[in-house]
C-alpha cells in the first residue's frame, strides 16, 4: 500500500490563514453546523431553494450549479490530504447553502452569486486529472491551497455582499 504524500507546511499555512479569515467573517449563528455539512447536503439545499423560488414565481435554474458540485467532488478528493485533521474541507461547500438562501430573496444578487460560482466550477474538474500526475509535488499542494483560499475568499465576499443590507 503506497504511503500518502507528505503535506506541504506552506500549503497548510495558506489554508489555515484562509480558513481563519472566513471563519472570522461569517457570524457564528450563520456558520453553525458548517463542520458537518456534506456536499450532498448542499445539493439538496440548492434544490429546496429552487423549489421555494418557484413557489414565489422567481424561479432560477439551479442546474447551473451542477458543474460546481461535480467539480467540488473532484477537488475535495484531491485536497482532502491537506485537510486531514482539520475542519477545512466542509468549508469548501458549506457556505454555499447560506449564501444561496440569503441571495434568493434578491434576484439580482442571486444571479451575481450564481455567475461567480459558475466561474469557480470551470476550474475545479481539472484537479482530478492534475492530481494523477502531481500528487506528490509540493508545488501542486501549494496550488491546491491557493485555490482553496480563493474559494473561501469568494464565499467571504459573496457573504458580505448578500448580508450588507440584510442584517
Main sheet specs: none
Our measurement of the CA-to-CA distance between the termini, rounded to an integer number of angstroms, reads 52 Å
Tally of contiguous helical segments = 8
Give start-end ranges of low-pLDDT stretches.
none
Order of helices and strands: HHHHHHHH
Percent helix: over 70%
**Structural class computed from helices and strand pairing:** mainly alpha
Count of DSSP E strands? 0
Mean pLDDT: 86
What is the compact description of this entry?
With 167 residues, the chain is mainly alpha-helical. The protein is built from eight helices and no strands. Helix 4 (66-83) packs across helix 6, helix 4 (66-83) crosses helix 8 and helix 5 packs parallel to helix 8.
How are the SSEs ordered, and which strands pair?
Layout (H helix, E strand, L loop, with lengths): L8 H17 L2 H4 L7 H17 L10 H18 L10 H10 L3 H18 L1 H9 L3 H26 L4
Helix pairs in contact: 1-8, 3-5, 4-6, 4-7, 4-8, 5-6, 5-8, 6-8
Structure report:
The protein contains eight helices and no strands. With 167 residues, the protein is mostly helical. It is globular. It has helices spanning 9-25, 28-31, 39-55, 66-83, 94-103, 107-124, 126-134, 138-163.
Features:
167 residues; mainly alpha; 71% helix; globular
Amino acid at each position: 500500500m503506497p504511503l500518502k504524500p507528505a503535506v506541504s507546511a506552506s500549503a497548510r499555512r495558506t489554508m489555515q490563514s484562509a480558513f481563519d479569515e472566513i471563519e472570522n467573517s461569517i457570524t457564528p449563528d450563520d456558520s453553525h453546523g458548517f463542520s458537518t455539512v456534506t456536499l450532498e447536503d448542499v445539493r439538496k439545499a440548492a434544490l429546496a431553494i429552487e423549489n421555494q423560488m418557484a413557489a414565489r414565481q422567481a424561479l432560477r435554474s439551479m442546474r447551473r450549479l451542477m458543474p460546481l458540485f461535480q467539480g467540488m467532488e473532484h477537488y475535495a478528493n484531491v485536497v482532502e490530504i491537506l485537510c486531514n485533521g482539520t475542519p477545512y474541507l466542509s468549508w469548501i461547500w458549506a457556505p454555499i447553502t447560506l449564501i444561496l438562501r440569503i441571495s434568493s430573496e434578491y434576484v439580482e444578487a442571486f444571479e451575481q452569486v450564481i455567475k461567480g460560482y459558475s466561474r469557480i466550477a470551470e476550474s475545479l474538474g481539472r484537479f482530478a486529472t492534475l492530481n494523477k500526475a502531481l500528487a506528490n509535488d509540493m508545488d501542486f499542494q501549494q496550488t491546491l491551497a491557493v485555490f482553496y483560499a480563493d474559494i473561501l475568499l469568494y464565499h467571504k465576499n459573496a457573504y458580505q455582499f448578500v448580508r450588507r443590507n440584510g442584517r
